[in-house]
Automatic annotation (TrEMBL):
Official protein name in the record: Preprotein translocase subunit YajC
Pfam family, one: YajC
Subcellular location: Cell membrane
GO biological process, one term: protein transport
Homology family: Belongs to the YajC family.
GO cellular component: plasma membrane
InterPro entries: Preprotein_translocase_YajC
Topology in membrane: Single-pass membrane protein
Bilayer-spanning residue ranges: 24-42
UniProt keyword annotations, A-Z: Cell membrane, Membrane, Protein transport, Translocation, Transmembrane, Transmembrane helix, Transport
Chief localisation class: membrane
Length: 123
């Protein structure tokens, strides 16, 4: 990084000696502008795409969907009121909890199959 800055400084000094006082600064502005553009494409744009996908998922929740909350609980949506969902948790039908749509991490069914790993013992 220090070498890069010394090269830029040498370019500014050479431009000043040649009578181009503002020529070096234009190069620096272009480099910083390119750097900021690259940062936008690498960091900000993908985050906005993920945020839009989450907002679309949360706005498409309807009655009967199985949802996973940000707290890790699975439940079934029984009613939608504005920005609030009434979610039924567990097999007991009387446990209904209102949650915000923002608290839904995904719309999916829980994985309830039991996977048993078998160890092979070398004899």
């Amino acid at each position: 990084m220090a070498n890069f800055l010394t090269l830029l400084g040498a370019g500014v000094e050479a431009g000043a000696e040649a009578g181009q006082a503002g020529g070096g600064w234009l190069g620096i502005i272009v480099i910083y502008g390119g750097f900021l553009g690259l940062l936008w494409f690498i960091m900000i744009r993908p985050q906005k795409k993920r945020q839009k996908a989450v907002m679309d998922m949360q706005s498409s929740i309807k009655v009967g969907d199985s949802v996973l909350t940000t707290g890790g609980l699975f439940g079934r949506v029984v009613d939608v009121v504005n920005n609030t969902l009434i979610v039924e948790f567990g097999t007991n039908k009387s446990v209904r909890v209102p949650i915000l749509k923002d608290a839904v991490a995904s719309v999916r069914e829980p994985e309830l199959t039991i996977v048993r790993e078998t160890e092979e013992i070398d004899k």
